[in-house]
Amino acid sequence: MYLVYLDETGSTGTDLTDSQQPVFVLAALIVPEACWQALEADLEGAISKHLPELSKDGHEVHAADLRAGRGVFKGVPVDTRIALRDEWLKIAQSHNLKLIYRAIVKRRFQTWMQSTFGSGVLINPHVAAFALVARVVDEYLASLPGAALGMFISDENQQIVRDVEKSIKVLRGVEGSLRLTRIVEKGFFINSRKSRPLQLCDLCALHARKKEEGNAGKPAKPVDANGIEQIEPLIHRGNESLQDVLAWLARQQSTSAQKKVAARDYVQGRLTPAHAGR
Questions:
Q1: Which of 13, 216, 230, 271 is most exposed by smallest CB count within 10 Å?
Q2: Which positions ≥6 away from 31 have C-beta within 8 Å?
Q3: Which CATH class is domain 2-240?
Q4: Distance (Å, whole) CA 30 – CA 214
């Protein structure tokens, strides 16, 4: 069994015009079940080494706060924060973890939605990113010996809970390239404060976003450079089946629109309940 931690960064929901956060990233950190306890112990040990007061109180290592020196990291010297970040990423490397992520440039995604559906249709980039990331995770697990299975673990964000659970259910039932065959039936959701591996995924996701923002024309700051470099050995690339995912999104939107019309017609007395539920 592999624990697949999911985290997002750069989320503005269906608002795709925020110039300060032009890129959305969904990241999956794949942790073998056999090493997750050792991984957690190593991450905790790094906190005790660099910031023992945080370890005592069990504070969450939130990547954005660590980077900006705010929240529990307010007043912590930059060198100390960078040292903790670098050690955490080196720990990820030492455990041979894999990072799979998908970046979505929001304005490009908005253009695709408008050209495909016209104005008025809003899809959260998370839905598209999840299908793309899940496809590569499933492909990676299938390539491992022993019929490896994976379990998605996410933060208790209610929007994410709904999207992940719905997408897993749908993608496990579809035919063709998008079908998930190595993912257990249900995602699991935990408070990120209680999971060091989930916090590590958050750290990886942040640096993946900084990397991709640079590719989109927003250069990364020097403070991010080493973090971006250190996630490179973790990254696994695979076949996202992008065109299949875009077609799947279009079908999902079409089905949703048809159900809304049927429900409206039922309310207005034009259909039977059976027709409205199709």
A1: 13
A2: 2, 3, 4, 5, 39, 95, 97, 197
A3: alpha beta
A4: 25
Query: What's the pLDDT at 265?
Result: 43
Give per-residue burial for 191-217: e unless 16+ CB within 10 Å, then b.
ebeebbbbbbbbbbbbbbbbbbbbeee
Asked whether the predicted pLDDT for residue 223 surpasses 70, the reply is yes
Cα dihedral 152→202→134→225 (10° resolution): -150
- Tell me which DSSP letter residue 235 carries: B
Show me where the domains of the chain are located: 2-240, 241-278
CA distances from 125 to 5, 128, 213 (A): 18, 5, 16
When mean pLDDT is compared across 173-187, 197-211, 261-275, the lowest value belongs to 261-275
Please indicate whether residue 117 or residue 100 has the higher confidence score (pLDDT). Answer: 100
Confirm if 206 and 68 have CB atoms less than 8 A apart: no
**pLDDT band of 18, cuts 50, 70, 90:** confident
What's this model's pTM, rounded to 2 decimal places?
0.87
